[in-house]
Amino acid sequence: MSVALMWEARAVEGRGAELLAWAREQRFDVAPLRRETFRAPQDRVLVITWWDAAYDADLPELPEPAPELVTRAVHRWRFEPVDAD
User: Fold this and answer.
1) Is residue 49 a part of any domain in this protein?
2) Angle value at C-alpha 58, between 37 and 73, nearest 5 degrees
3) Structural contact between residues 80 and 1, judged by C-beta atoms closer than 8 angstroms
4) Residue 67 located in a structural domain
5) What's the CATH number where 22 sits?
6) Is the pLDDT at 84 greater than 70, yes or no?
């Protein structure tokens, strides 16, 4: 079974590059199967990690950045793959 963890944050205006650098520097004690980092307008940063684990497994997640770097709390979601039709 596998699960994808999604982490999304919005930087304070003009600090998107700093938030992106911060997210890319974060490491886990155990490496995920895969990790991708994205950026979007409005200084948003998205990180998706894939794990070989059950949906409800206790997995490492990226922490909250410093409050002065973001405009709101980080959004987090878990997803599990589904078979293609």
Assistant:
1) yes
2) 50
3) yes
4) yes
5) 3.30.70
6) no
